[in-house]
Amino acid sequence: MTVAFGTILLTFIMATLRATTPLLLAALGGVFSERAGVVNIALEGIMLAGAWGAAYFSFISGSAWIGLLGAVFIGVIMAGLHAVASIKYYADQVVSGTAINLLAVGFTEFMLNRIWGQAGSSPEVASLPNIGPLNFMIYLAFILAIVSWVALYRTPWGLRLRSVGEHPLAADTLGIDVFKMRYAGVLLSGVLGGLAGASLSIGLLSRFVDGMSAGKGFIALAAMIFGKWNPLGAVG
Fold it and tell me: Which whole-number Å values give the CA distances from 154 to 60, 98, 130, 157, in the listed order?
């Protein structure tokens, strides 16, 4: 009975860690963007596009590591669109984020059919390895949570980023480039959102599935808010 309970508990913990990984990575991305003063509900679209990018680049290169870089690349592009619209052109941040979410749905569905000639999912692609019983992305997510906390609360750069989000006029009078810091925060959310997508397509699975983000970007936003915009709070 004790052995059986221990096995069930271990299985539950491992399943929880696997489910946590994409949510945590996306929530960390949201923390950087929100701390810079930009609402980023585009995390859902960034994650979905990143998942597609990871599968596509893994497929054409035969390397999951190239796929991981591809996910980051696509995530930064999607976040860059949100940054330009929100920061340079002062567009409504919620409207911009919603548009990017819709763009990601249409783009990934179109490319799935265009590249692989099939709907639903891609063929099997190279996936990231396991380290012991867990996938590489699980370890990376928790390491990045600690790194993010240190960057935000123990470095001058983090202080500048937080000041831009909390008191942009005061930050500007101190010589901090508000626009550059906001771009940095949003683009970092693209990096982390892309990694969140990669954890879905080449981490947990070995293929891209249409709509595989399935609302996880919005759940990540909720986790970020409940965590009080703090990386370690998001872990909790």
Answer: 40, 33, 32, 9
